[in-house]
Amino acid sequence: MIQGNNEAQDGGLIAVKDHARGAMDDLSSRAQLAADSVRETTQRTTRRAQLKFEDVLQNNPLALGAAAALIGAVVGMSVPQTDAENEWMGDARDAVLDRAKELASTAADRVGDAAENMEKLAAHVKDQAKDLSSSGSPSRESRNGS
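The structure assignment produced for this chain is given below.
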């Protein structure tokens, strides 16, 4: 009877071990699937961001440069001053910061002006193309610069 009891306990222990092993395998598989999904999503998102950045770089390099300059100026101005910096740099630091703000503002204005000029040029080219397609030659107004 004791031997039968031990065999039943051993059988129950084996069943618990098998069940635990199965649960661990299932959990491991689920974790692997989740990791694969996260990796694939990350790769897709990274690739989309790369493509978008390349598009902006190709189509709007001035805007990208102005944004970088503004971000640099903001980061530089947000760093707190230290006593040593004030002692050593003092007025020179303030002059550099003022000049950086001025340059960033000028760069932003220039980018805005360039964008506006490009829009005007694109509209003019569009009008010229429309005139050419409708009459075969530029209109009198277009030739006179009006």
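Interim note for the steering committee: Confidence is low (pLDDT under 50) at residues 137-144. The CA atoms of residues 35 and 121 lie 50 Å apart.
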